[in-house]
């Protein structure tokens, strides 16, 4: 670098520093040290909490033990806790002077599946699921989220002199069936309690622990349920001409509906139609009266979503009409909306998180899974959801170069986060995100009053 370039670079850096937005003044480096110190003493208790919840998971809207355990933890910290908000959900409020309200959400529920990790704290618990007894497992990492949630609350109280305002920590039931967020909203989440100025959530992901992935804008897909019943006229398998065969109609529909994706939707836009279940008939020589299909419809954009809905309906009706069958019953159930990560909230958090996580804080393209955290943004709360890694880097490298088994993703019976570094990353990232939001809102208010 020659002298002129160097002096230009120096003055540019100086200018940049003097023009940095006000929230850059959050002293992230010393905050990180304070968080590390608090984690060193808090972690053993959080580890025990995590393993207890992991070993005793509960299904959607049955999360009474986890809710009671979290309520007790938050009360012990001095939060004002209201239970049974949206059935098994809870709201914990902590007021620390005048300022904005920042919400942090964890989920409470686990999945109806058998854990096969072989961990000494693996779940062997069973529960009732739609009338059947099933194994239950925390194979999505919501137990990681709960431990991080309690740890973040504790850490933020230890840093009480760094922020002014209200903490609103909510534990949401039934995320896996995309019903809990709506249940809490319907039960007065934003009317009986303050409506937050910003909201955060995190999710465990099968990437190296110590890594944090984030996005601005769309973060997950819209998920709608699909149920179709094709009606025919039953009869003998040897005499199809005396019947209207709904199995043949359903088969045609399942194939043809994919042309809505390949020929009608803009190929550069995301959209998926999956038929995951088909039920019809009892024996090979009987043509049944009807066939039922269940599926899921995924999209990012409202216009794509509308196009898929219309295309599916038209294709189903046409499949039936081709066989001279009555019109099918078509039911599209509106599910989760896409997550919208607010650019303002993400911007402030990203600045703090970049300082601490460096190149382990990365942008990720939107995921095709769905999440009902989106309900809070739809209700008008600027939000951010980010992902944290759960596995040892060596294990991921081994899977990548074929030296080890594939990495178990969320919902795999083998999903097994490494607790300590995962929970510690969750707490560090969430604490900094919340502090950045308090800081951003406080500075904005200061600027407004100066004007
Ligand atoms: Zn899940
Ligand atoms: Zn999940």
List the helices and strands and how they pair.
Elements: H1 3-19, H2 28-55, H3 64-77, E1 80-85, E2 89-96, E3 101-107, E4 126-129, E5 132-135, H4 142-158, E6 165-172, H5 180-186, E7 198-208, E8 212-214, E9 217-218, E10 222-231, E11 235-236, H6 246-256, H7 258-264, E12 271-280, E13 286-287, E14 290-299, H8 302-322, E15 329-333, E16 340-341, H9 343-357, E17 361-363, H10 374-378, E18 383-391, H11 393-400, H12 419-450
Parallel strand pairs: 3-6, 3-7, 7-18, 8-17
Antiparallel strand pairs: 1-2, 2-6, 4-5, 8-18, 9-16, 10-14, 10-15, 11-13, 12-14
Helix pairs in contact: 2-4, 2-12, 3-4, 4-12, 6-8, 9-12
Bound molecules: zinc ion (ZN) (2 copies).
Count of alpha and pi helical runs: 12
Task: Return the structural class.
Answer: alpha+beta
Helical residue percent band = 40-55%
State mean pLDDT (0 to 100 scale).
93
End-to-end distance: 43 Å
Number of strands: 18
Overview of this structure, please?
By secondary structure, the protein is of the alpha+beta class. Helices cover 40% and strands 24% of the residues. The chain has helices at 3-19, 28-55, 64-77, 142-158, 180-186, 246-256, 258-264, 302-322, 343-357, 374-378, 393-400, 419-450, and strands at 80-85, 89-96, 101-107, 126-129, 132-135, 165-172, 198-208, 212-214, 217-218, 222-231, 235-236, 271-280, 286-287, 290-299, 329-333, 340-341, 361-363, 383-391. The strands form 5 sheets. The chain has an 8-stranded mixed β-sheet, with helices on both faces. The chain has a 4-stranded antiparallel β-sheet with strand order 12-14-10-15. Helix 6 (246-256) packs antiparallel against helix 8 (302-322). The longest helix is centred in the last third of the chain and has 32 residues, at 419-450. The two termini are 43 Å apart. Residues 1-24 have low confidence and may be disordered. Bound molecules: zinc ion (2 copies). One zinc ion is lined by residues 140, 142, 175, 203.
């Amino acid at each position: 670098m020659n002298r002129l370039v160097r002096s230009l670079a120096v003055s540019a850096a100086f200018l940049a520093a003097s023009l940095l937005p006000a929230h850059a003044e959050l002293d992230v480096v010393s905050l990180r040290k304070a968080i590390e110190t608090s984690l060193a003493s808090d972690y053993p208790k959080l580890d025990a909490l995590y393993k207890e919840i992991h070993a005793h998971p509960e299904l959607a809207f049955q999360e009474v033990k986890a809710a009671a355990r979290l309520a007790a933890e938050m009360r012990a910290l001095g939060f004002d806790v209201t239970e049974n908000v949206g059935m098994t959900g809870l709201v914990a409020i902590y007021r620390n002077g005048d300022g904005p309200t920042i919400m942090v959400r964890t989920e409470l529920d686990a999945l109806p599946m058998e854990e096969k990790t072989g961990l000494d704290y693996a779940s062997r618990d069973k529960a009732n699921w739609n009338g059947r007894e099933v194994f239950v497992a925390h194979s999505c990492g919501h137990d990681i989220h709960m431990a991080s949630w309690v740890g973040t609350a504790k850490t933020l109280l230890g840093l009480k002199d760094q922020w002014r305002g209200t903490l609103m920590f909510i534990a949401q039931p039934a995320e896996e069936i995309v019903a809990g967020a709506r249940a809490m909203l319907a039960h007065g989440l934003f009317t009986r309690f303050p409506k937050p100025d910003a909201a955060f959530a995190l999710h465990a992901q099968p990437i190296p622990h110590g890594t944090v992935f984030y996005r601005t804008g769309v973060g997950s897909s819209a998920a709608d349920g699909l149920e179709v019943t094709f009606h025919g006229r039953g009869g003998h398998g040897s005499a199809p001409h005396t019947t209207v065969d709904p199995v043949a109609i359903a088969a045609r529909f399942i194939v043809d509906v994919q042309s809505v994706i390949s020929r009608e939707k803009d190929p550069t836009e995301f959209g998926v139609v999956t038929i995951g279940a088909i039920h019809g008939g009892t024996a090979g020589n009987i043509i049944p009266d009807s066939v039922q299909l269940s599926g899921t419809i995924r999209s990012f954009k409202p216009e794509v979503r509308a196009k898929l809905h219309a295309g599916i309906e038209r294709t189903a009706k046409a499949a039936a009409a081709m066989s001279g069958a009555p019109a099918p019953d078509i039911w599209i159930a509106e599910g989760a909306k896409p997550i919208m990560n607010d650019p303002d909230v993400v911007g402030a958090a990203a600045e703090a998180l970049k300082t601490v996580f460096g190149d382990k804080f990365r942008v990720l393209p939107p995921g095709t899974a769905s999440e009902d955290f989106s309900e809070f943004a739809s209700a008008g709360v600027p939000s951010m959801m980010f992902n944290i890694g759960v596995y040892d880097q060596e294990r991921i490298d081994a899977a990548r170069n074929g030296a080890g088994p594939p990495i178990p993703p969320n919902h795999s019976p083998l999903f097994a986060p490494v607790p300590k570094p995962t929970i510690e990353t969750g707490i560090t990232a969430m604490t900094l995100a919340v502090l950045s939001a308090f800081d951003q809102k406080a500075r904005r208010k200061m600027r407004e009053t100066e004007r």
